[in-house]
Design brief:
Elements lengths: L12 H16 L9 H8 L3 H13 L3 E4 L3 E4 L4 H7 L7 E3 L7 H4 L4 H12 L6 E3 L2 H8 L6 E5 L3 H8 L5 E4 L11 E5 L1 H14 L5 E6 L5 H13 L9 E4 L4 H12 L8 E4 L2 H13 L9 E6 L12 E4 L2 H14 L6 E5 L1 E3 L13
Parallel strand pairs: 3-4, 3-5, 5-6, 6-7, 7-13, 8-9, 8-10, 10-11, 11-12
Antiparallel strand pairs: 1-2, 12-14
Helix pairs in contact: 1-3, 1-4, 2-3, 6-13, 9-10, 11-12
Amino acid sequence: MLKTLDKRKGIAKPLQLRNILLELIGSQYSAGQRFHSERELMNMFNVSSLTVSQAMKSLANDGIVERKIGGGTFVKKAGEEVLFMSDYTAPFALYVNILPGRSLAESNPLNWFVTSEIQRGIINSFNGKIKMLSASEILSSLKNDRDSGCILINPPSKEEEALSGLTAQLVNIDVDSRLKPSANCIRWECMNGIYDLFFYLVQQCGHKKIALIAGKPAPHKQRIAGFRMNCETFDTYCPPEYIKLVDTGTREAGGNALRELLQLGSDRPTAIFVDTDIKAEGAVQAALEAGLKVSADISIAGFDDIPDAKHLCPPLTTVRVPYYEMGVQAVKKLMSGQNEARCIPMQAELIVRASTGPVPVDSR
């Protein structure tokens, strides 16, 4: 009889399904046999396509199954080795400083997707019970539960120091580069991604007049520095009026900055780097309202790769920050037991879509 998923366990459904499938493969299949399709698994376990897709992707990444495009899924490993993997559950609870039940979009409308993606990465990779609490509640709980693990997302230094004194199993996800280099953390770096964007815009698309729309808060300094450095590296034309620093991260701020750039007339930039996708969305809308074709008349690229970026019209070229992977990596670091105090950097990457293209012929 097939096992079923249990919502009361506090373990993410993709991980529960993965364990059930490991037991099924280990006990009933041999290497080389065809395995169930995703649709068959959806019907067998009454779960969504997303749950099945995530579970099967995890099995494929671990070499348990092989997925052949158009040819089905086949078992690569079976037997006792796979059965042993199905029995594993983390021997401790994991505390994460996210309050359940809160609407991330309402509480932080400009950066909700950051926490959402990190949270998704943690939940989909930790095979055990997760407790989502405030940092103060975690601090109180760990005083009586020192064997548990803890992942802190963008903690202030004082919280990180207080909690690190209570448990050795602590990993920080340092989104805004707030922590000291000695902290045990995962953080992202943007320089490679911005370099790749400039290489694409300049070397492949022929742009030489590239402007910046960016926020003033401290977390944006790296993106501004990356823009300035690559302007020098690629010898692009960037007078002071090409730098538009705005006070807020809204779509309206991005749109207003783009309108100011368009007032430069024949000297206006042919490509714009916007340091967040939300402001880039406003810039795209302002360009369309001005009668310009985005990509053909002006190229606009963002930063972050928010969930809606690929659904915009046109889909937005952006520098993707691996927020989901940061959550996954934090869990891996915690589970490895190698919690020496050091930061693991994760690189941003360029995602090219339809909002950028070759420099217009009359601007060459």
